[in-house]
Amino acid sequence: MKAWRRELDRLMSEGCLRLGEKGARVGCALFFCDQQEEYSWQGEQWFLPASNQKLWTSAVALERLGSDHRWVTHIAVDEGKLWVRGGGDPLFDGAAAQAVAKKLKSKGVHSLTGPLYWEDFFFDAAPWGTGWSWDDQGEGYSAPVHGLNMEHNRITFTADPKQAKPSLHIDPLWAAVQVKHSLVWTNKRENDVKVTRKIEENRFFIEGELSRTDPVITGAVHSGPLFFMEGLIHALLSQGILLPEQPNVREGRFPEQAGLSIQHDSPPLSVCLEWVNGESDNFAAEVLLRTLGRQKTDKGVEQAGLDTVRETLHQWGISPPGRMVDGSGLSMYNLSSPRPFVALLRRMLHHPEREVFIRSLPRYGVSGTLKRREWQPPHGFSVAAKTGTLTGVKTLSGYLLRGDRAEVVFSLMINGLLEENNGEQLQDQFLQLLCKLTN
């Protein structure tokens, strides 16, 4: 056996034990690009992929939609009434609302008497993914998915670490939100916070330990369309468009004809992928999956999106996940293996959208969900990889790069951890060994 295989075998078999993780399972697959050699340790076994699931979704989205794909929001005005029809835009925010309001005013809209209608039929699926935990619905990572969305359907709560006690500030400022908290400061790197929300209300309760180094918390709103309309009303008023003191907001069908019709185009898919992979945004990943489904059918878009992912992987000759129920990996029902992830990543090295795909991945110690990692690759190397984290789960799949060239394609999947930090330590040790083996 080659010495490098023995070193990898030793790390895979003993790494978790040395960290005190007696019950953790490890799976790994590698491809050394120069030597054209493969390595696998439990590479065909099933693991919870966590957010490595987003690699399936984003790669197929690039293939089927293209990096220039945009989502369209339609707005119509007639006789003092306004209608909005959602097109699934995952990046619509306060700035986009201001742009819409400014455009309406430039078209001669100076007042609206109402009602203000919203239509949210673009996606027919439930606003949460299959298998998402019901008691996490107030958490920002569980934001609901709609055809009309605003600010990722999340509220951001921040605190000043210089204050003796945490005092939360709400963003966006216009959001009609109530929040109570019982937070205390901690000097740990990560927050240990629980966010809950009243059913069908934006009333939040937050408790736990807030990190002074990262005093930011997010909560999921209860309704994307209503939050959208709230933000749009704020934008209309700020642009000087007159509205009733209590605007009449209701659900209603978009008219086939109206006196004035405009549309707002989202940024391209390439920008969305920086959220999906770089920030590991579950909400945006689920929009991608449903958008893939919309290409196939107007009904059952979530299942149609899953079917599209499997069909595309089969066409590429890649074994699909053992079980895939959402686009983000938040569900505990998903199952994947390291070797198919490596096969996918190898294929994307030769895909026309290669640069967009790799650019969307966070860099170790530099950006996205890997920004806070302390270990840094040696000079000349970098790591572009997708992280994945659930309770007891740490996964990492991507590329060891030398300059712009891929040296190693890898997937490391760890399940059954007691401490997340132990999983990150093993990832560090794994990448250190890869750098050693390719030097």
UniProtKB/TrEMBL annotation:
Coiled coil: none annotated. GO terms for molecular function: serine-type carboxypeptidase activity. One of its GO terms (biological process) is proteolysis. This is Peptidase M15. InterPro entries: Beta-lactam/transpept-like, Peptidase_S13. It comes from Marinithermofilum abyssi. Keywords: Hydrolase. Belongs to the peptidase S13 family. PANTHER family: D-ALANYL-D-ALANINE CARBOXYPEPTIDASE, PENICILLIN-SENSITIVE CARBOXYPEPTIDASE A. The gene is dacB. The keyword Iron-sulfur does not apply. Pfam families: Peptidase_S13. It comes from the Bacteria.
